[in-house]
Amino acid sequence: MNGIMDEPEGATPLDPDELEGLRQKHITTRGELNELEQANIETGLLWLAGRRQTAILTDEFLRELHRRLFGDVWRWAGTYRLREKNIGIDPRLISVQVRQLLGNAQYWAENKVYAPLEAAARLHHELVRIHPFPNGNGRHARISADIFLAEAFDHPPVDWARGADLANNSARRTAYIAALRAADANDFDPILNFVNASM
After folding, report:
1. Among 16, 21, 154, 178, which lies 20 to 30 A Cα-Cα from 190?
2. Which CATH number is 153's domain given?
3. Is 26 a catalytic residue?
4. Is the model's pTM score more than 0.90?
């Protein structure tokens, strides 16, 4: 991949207005963008580890998490998208569906509706399906699912990548995208296998 617009399979394309939100104008390739975003994610994870205990299943927390993970890269980080994408719901429905999902997740945890890994996989899938942000939704959803596992279930995080690079085309990424698409069609077995929830 050379240009900044070259996305791996299953990635959300950035439109020109969203690209205008790039803070570092010297970035010209997808590889440079991935490195910059990864550095920001690592900073965001440090913030996450050091924050005071707060409610995680809130709209405000999800937006703040996205801002912390991507705010050094994108001006629009932490704000819900306003445009249709190749994936995701109508942008006018995002805040309502996010709040509904978070309420459902709270119920799942409090009432032990699902085992921890299944609850996390379902939260992750729904966040990706809603696709609230212009970009970074998969990474944000994986980190959100891991926080949910830790704080609602005292469970270790999912090993999403298993040594592969989910940001670029790989067999693991292909399996991940296929599992999400199967869950879109109400077949949750592949995503449960992906996170080892069925073991």
Report:
1. 154
2. 1.10.3290.10
3. no
4. yes
